């Protein structure tokens, strides 16, 4: 994840930056992707602060187990596609198997150090640390594709910050206060009932618990 200040932001290394085009050669695509994306932000007057994920919490073990199952299934489907000579599905399943490793992270940290760009390693989830940076006024917002940044309390969340320039996707900016005000609550009620928003997000599904098949919200 990435944190941004009025010019600063918080970012996470995305697996989209890592290529699997040739598993027998060193992979540098994550470094190239980070280098050019960072240069683009700096040239636009944005000062990024990269935040790397720490150790996942124990309560996330169920979600991690599911991801491992999906990965095993993708490996089987990749083998079948390779055997059938289906190049389209080979590419598709290869993308699903891309995984950001500790080595990728360490190489990116070295690159950021050489570029003079600050970074930190979160004790746990990167989005939680990004939200803390935003709430303390040290950075402007959190740049991540995961909307749980809002649940962690970041007041401003930006998506598509690291999208490829070729895609020409506009950056999406979400303000937590504006989202809560859409509920029709007054500002005072919004402050008091932020916990309701968090409960709603958890009920709709998150990495730490099962989602409810039917959710009915009642204001009391």
Automatic annotation (TrEMBL):
GO terms for biological process: DNA repair; DNA replication. Gene3D superfamilies: 5'-nuclease. This is Flap endonuclease 1-like. SUPFAM superfamilies: PIN domain-like. Residues 64-91 form a coiled coil. InterPro entries: PIN-like_dom_sf, XPG-I_dom, XPG/Rad2, XPG_CS, XPG_DNA_repair_N. PANTHER family: FLAP ENDONUCLEASE 1, FLAP ENDONUCLEASE FAMILY MEMBER. It comes from Callorhinchus milii. The keyword Magnesium applies. Residues 113-185 form the XPG-I domain. GO terms for molecular function: 5'-3' exonuclease activity; 5'-flap endonuclease activity; magnesium ion binding; manganese ion binding; RNA-DNA hybrid ribonuclease activity. Keywords: Coiled coil, DNA damage, DNA repair, DNA replication, Endonuclease, Exonuclease, Hydrolase, Magnesium, Metal-binding, Nuclease. Residues 4-74 form the XPG N-terminal domain. Structure-specific nuclease with 5'-flap endonuclease and 5'-3' exonuclease activities involved in DNA replication and repair. During DNA replication, cleaves the 5'-overhanging flap structure that is generated by displacement synthesis when DNA polymerase encounters the 5'-end of a downstream Okazaki fragment. It enters the flap from the 5'-end and then tracks to cleave the flap base, leaving a nick for ligation. Also involved in the long patch base excision repair (LP-BER) pathway, by cleaving within the apurinic/apyrimidinic (AP) site-terminated flap. GO terms for cellular component: nucleus.
